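fwd from M.: "can u put these together and see what the complex looks like"

so here's what she sent:
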Amino acid sequence: MGNLYIGLVHYPVKNKRGDIVASAVTNLDIHDIARIAKTYNSAGFFIIQPMPSQKRLVEWIISHWTEGYGGEYNPIRAEAFDLIRLVDAIDDAIAAIKYETGCPPLVIGTWAGYPGETVDYTKVGAIIETGIEPILVLLGTGFGMADEVEDVCNYVLEPIRGNGEYNHLSVRAAAAIIMDRLRGITQTD
Amino acid sequence: MGNLYIGLVHYPVKNKRGDIVASAVTNLDIHDIARIAKTYNSAGFFIIQPMPSQKRLVEWIISHWTEGYGGEYNPIRAEAFDLIRLVDAIDDAIAAIKYETGCPPLVIGTWAGYPGETVDYTKVGAIIETGIEPILVLLGTGFGMADEVEDVCNYVLEPIRGNGEYNHLSVRAAAAIIMDRLRGITQTD
């Protein structure tokens, strides 16, 4: 699964009222999703955040946990943080993957209540297994990614459902479940 | 899966040096695991924390998100928080489940690097499906549950593995993956 990238989208996302906004960074999103990405052998974890003050915060957190005291105190955390790249926009993440791999990624969107056509985990797992194209899975913060993000998505992943009607997982929990489901398909040992 | 309970253990757990300590509460553990529990139709989420100052903090957080402003602002969060029970010790969680269901729970421990014999998700899923006994899955905070917790566990669950050697997920991510894997077995639709 070395060709699978995660993108955590802070812009464009919806707020509670449905307005398009840039969302603030949550420290534990960075820690949790970096560790999930490392656990499932992801090729990179893009934090997509254009706001200068928020970018400085992310840079400070990354630097603390890689070069700073955090990295010394917890070198295992530093290993996961090495996967993080901070970019301004989804297009920048796509361009970076194209530059790294020579191929633009298949972009896979995730929305908790998506009403349209979706692909299931088996299909995405099969695409990953071919190893032909890199894959970028986009996860929304706030109240989900803006509808316009659909335009850059090749597919939308089947929403996570539990055993009932309740469907309000944190983005950290959703990231964990999505990566585990895709790994269940692609892992061979 | 209405007979499956989650227990988040703050005591007894290990710290970085392996000493047995009570760990502090993390606000987002409460939010994330309550939502995971609700999504996967769990019967209850026990926070196992004996320290008085930490118990007051948990009580304050629960009250804010159920009766207070948080509950008004976000009634969906309140639904998840209704699953939370705060107890002093693992034995108190066991006693509460016995009182509620008339049957003591099968207790299932989780340790990231457990060296002994474990059960896999299929076996636990099969036990859940029979519906005969309630199940309590214990999740450790800090650097994992103290070894003595093994004495109250009927089984230890197979550790989560990704696609490589890295195995340092947050307890929030582990809770999400464990509940999703068990649901994958027991869900029939």
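replying to her w this: The domain at 4-186 of chain A is CATH 3.40.1280.10 (Alpha/beta knot).
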